[in-house]
Each structure stands twice: as C-alpha cells, then as structure tokens.
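Figure 6 in text form: structure in, sequence out.
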C-alpha cells in the first residue's frame, strides 16, 4: 500500500479521504495491504482510518484481546473519533466487538468479516515447524479459497514474523487470549447495526461461526461470498465492497 503511515503521539495509522469515519482493524497477520482495495474504494466517500495495532509492543499483561481494545479506545480518544463505522477482520473483528461492548456510544455500525470471538482455527498455538518455509506457505494458503492469493511477499511476511522469537511468543499469546475470550454470552448486548460478510469457504472461522454471530447479534445481517476464504476484502474486494457500500449508505447521517 502506497499510503503514508502517519504518526501522532504514540499512534501510527493510515488516514485517507473525508466524510464519516470508517475505522479498519486488522488481524494477527493483517498487513495494511490487505485493505488496499477497500481504502481505494471508500476514501471517495469516507474518512478511512487504519490504526496499526501494537501486536508486538504491549506488555505481557496487556498482550490480549482486551489490551488491544483498550489501545483502540485510547486511539479514539486521541483522534476525537465519534459516530464511527467500525470494520474488523479476524482478530480485528474480535477487538472491535470488545471495544463496542464497552463504548457503544462511539460506534454507528460494525462490520465483521472472518471475525474471531466465538470459534477459530488459527495457525496453531505453537510453531513446531516455524523454520520450515513450505509449512508456513501451506498454512498461509489456507487463509484463502484461491491459494495463489498467498503470494511470495505475503508468505515471506508471515515467515519473518513467526521466526522472530519475541513476535512468535506475542502471536501465540494473542491467539490464546482470543480462544479464551469467548463473547457468546455478551453479544446480545450489542444493539448496533452489524453487517457480517463471510467467505463461504472460510476454514479458519467457518460458516457456522457466521451463522452463530448472526443468531446472537440482534441487529445483524449476514452476507455470503462464494469461493472465498477468511479475508474477503483481500481475496474478492469488488464483491466485498459491493456488499459493504449499501450497508454504510443505509446508516449514513
């Protein structure tokens, strides 16, 4: 992604466009490039913001879904954000839900795609083959319906993360926190409009997860994308944007 990463206080973020704020929360292995097509499309109508989550920089006690949600709250306060359309993929969706449960007054809508929070098949809680490039490539390919989406640049990025011992420990800690922090009993408290956009072939948060979110979130709508895995906004961006645009338009103003 060619967008400038801005710095303000202790925060790093991308911000493009003008209009109602659309805040994007990335997942454990979520590079900014994952959102490129989404930003290109919605910067025409929205103020699109991607805070870079401090996955590897929090203290041991703060390295959790709750710790990341507190960071998002501090970012909102710093940027004076209100009436936000919040979108999260994978762990980012989970963090967004925890944040929305505590601060619903700041949120206008929530969009979830491949979100954790109920159940997920991760890269695994340990990395017994973390030095094995082919193993990491195969695991990365499982994110997508079309394995070719996992190009060398993406695999190299995942490989470098999990072969850094400190980063690998943080990833494992966050993955375990996500598994422990099940939101099943709390989701009915979220009355905000929620758009669920799910890959029909997601193997990490399978279709049954989307159906359970839809059942538990009282004001939700569920949209399926066929031949699509865990990151629809990256794998089939045109279809994803075609679903998201009317949802945001419906709740504008």
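Output sequence:
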């Amino acid at each position: 992604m060619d967008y400038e990463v801005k710095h303000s206080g202790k925060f790093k973020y991308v911000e493009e466009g003008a209009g109602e704020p659309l805040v994007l929360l990335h997942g454990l292995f979520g590079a900014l490039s994952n959102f490129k097509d989404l930003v290109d499309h919605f910067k025409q109508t929205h103020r699109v913001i991607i805070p870079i989550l401090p996955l590897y920089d929090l203290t041991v006690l703060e390295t959790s879904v709750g710790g990341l949600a507190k960071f998002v709250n501090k970012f909102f306060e710093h940027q004076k954000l209100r009436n936000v359309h919040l979108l999260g993929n994978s762990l980012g969706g989970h963090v967004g839900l925890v944040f929305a449960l505590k601060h619903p007054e700041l949120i206008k809508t929530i969009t979830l795609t491949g979100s954790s929070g109920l159940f997920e098949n991760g890269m695994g809680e340990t990395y017994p083959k973390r030095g094995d490039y082919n193993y990491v490539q195969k695991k990365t390919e499982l994110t997508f319906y079309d394995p070719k989406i996992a190009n060398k640049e993406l695999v190299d990025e995942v490989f470098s993360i999990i072969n850094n011992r400190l980063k690998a420990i943080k990833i494992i800690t966050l993955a375990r926190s996500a598994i422990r922090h099940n939101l099943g009993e709390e989701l009915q408290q979220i009355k905000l409009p929620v758009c669920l956009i799910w890959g029909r072939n997601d193997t990490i948060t399978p279709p049954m997860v989307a159906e359970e979110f839809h059942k538990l979130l009282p004001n939700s709508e569920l949209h399926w994308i066929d031949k699509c895995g865990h990151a629809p906004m990256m794998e089939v961006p045109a279809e994803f944007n075609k679903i998201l645009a009317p949802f945001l338009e419906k709740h504008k103003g």
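Caption detail: The mean pLDDT is 93.
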